[in-house]
Amino acid sequence: QVQLAESGGGLVQAGGSLRLSCAASGKISSINTMGWYRQAPGNQHTLVARITGGGFTDYADSVKGRFTISRDNAKNTVYLQMNSLKPEDTAVYYCNRWPSLIPWGQGTQVTVSS
Q1: Quick check: 29 pLDDT over 80?
Q2: Which of 2, 3, 10, 4 is nearest to 108 (CA)?
Q3: Of 17 and 74, the one with more pLDDT
Q4: Closest by alpha carbon to 48, among 84, 1, 10, 96?
């Protein structure tokens, strides 16, 4: 089964940028749609962006125009470019299959200071 490992998080000031990576142990080419989710303290995982095998993308309204999801099937990696970050983007970010989830990775913490 595919295992997921997220990286690239950190502490950034509002207005800054980060690029998250999600490395899969198996072939993500076999997974049609991959997504990036985030979980703020006390909340459930929330989908923020998804990308199909054909490259179609979709975003939550809260990140539209600021975040860009992409995938490199040859590298079994999914990316999330986050620009114009806001304090409300602070959360642990995870990648996973959409809509049927597989076991979560460890996530990567993103903290945006005001």
Answers
A1: no
A2: 10
A3: 17
A4: 96
